[in-house]
Model the fold of this input.
Amino acid sequence: MKKYDINPDENGYFGKYGGQIIPPDLKPIFDEIESFYLNIKNDEDFQKELRDLLKNYVGRPSPIYYAKNLSAKIGGAQIYFKREDLNHTGAHKINHTLGEALIAKRMGKKKLLAETGAGQHGVALATAAAVVGIPCEIHMGEIDIAKQAPNVLRMKILGAKVVPVKMGTKTLKDAVDSAFGEFVKDPQNTFFGIGSVVGPHPFPMMVRDFQRIVGEEAREQFKEITKQDPDALIACVGGGSNAIGLFSAFLENEQIDIYGVEPSGRSLNPGDHAATLTLGKPGDIHGMHTYLLQDEEGNPEPVYSIASGLDYPGVGPQHSFLKDIKRIKYELASDKESLEAFMELSKVEGIIPALESSHAIAFAMKLAKKMKKDKKILINLSGRGDKDIDFVADKLNI
Done:
């Protein structure tokens, strides 16, 4: 029996986290998605179509790269990257959006709907929508639209309708609120392509399952390259999809240390970070019970990160479960550290990482120094930094 890599119970809970905390009239909609997914996940025609797209459209398997220059410069452990940045659309998000789009098509839905922060999920869903032939609508906070202009343009070119969100902090949490508001207007004909392992059951399970390919590939590739498992795994955590995608294949091996890296932003004062698992406490958000940065009344606190894909006050419920049972250690990286890691990897290895991934790199650089040279670290390089270069250039006066 598996101890860590578990499925949610019949009510959608990983331990005490998850569930379907939604209006009663929406429960049949999400139950239908769960039933459809559980029936189709092992359907050979569905899996064949998905495998073909992942191989010949996305370009999987993504390679593992030994960062020998960075490893030598830092000293200590050897650093490897799972190169999800090389996927079509530039990030790991395409792995689950293709699955969601295929399910939506087979369910006869008329529109794909989603939120996005950094724009990578929006681009990936717009791409998947174009492939399967379903209209797509993406809700995105005005602040993120300004920060991520290249991805906004990509979504529009791909045929998606981009809806600016002007309420609240005008970032990811508000984009989720806005998209959910649109979804409830016509849930029968709309498929909400949730962008991470968050939201009501079955999405935390379903998105995780589609992202498992990252870890399954990595486990085989790493042993082929190094003849061993990694000593440590590292990935950034906002909602948590890229992290759980890598981690899920290794959870049962207790010899491997696993680290999720959250944004400590400008400071650890309220509104200056998005360190949900570090400073939050259990609460309800967007249809799930999970760790949440919240005020005294239980309302979500404003959050911030230099990486638009990480500035979310909640987190995937499976991450909350894995924190409580102490299988994963959740660490922090600041804006400053992440910018330094962004520039370091670019200059030393010729790889421009997404600011989200830069949080994982920043922590890995610190950890590697503390480890022996025969130890090996595997980082999920979850996305490329093309979308961030104008913002970084402005921030650093390049």
The longest helix spans residues 203-226. The chain has 15 helices and 14 strands. The chain has two domains: 25-54+93-204, 59-91+212-396. The CA atoms of residues 269 and 303 lie 10 Å apart.
